[in-house]
Amino acid sequence: xxxxxxxxxxxxxxxxxxxxxxxxxxxxxxxxxxxxxxxxxxxxxxxxxxxxxxxxxxxxxxxxxxxxxxxxxxx
Length: 75
Fold this sequence. Notes:
mainly alpha; 8% strand
């Protein structure tokens, strides 16, 4: 199953905290969620601020970034 969190606006609309809340709840339920994100403003493959925030809020949940989120999800 896939849960998509998105918006037509980039930045500042609350998507990252919603992702963290959903991942946290899934972890509490004993599930193993992963995060696939676009990596907006990630330069040279470096982790962007969203990646770093989610790493702190969702320890243990794998997170892959790729402009093509299908590729990110496939691992």
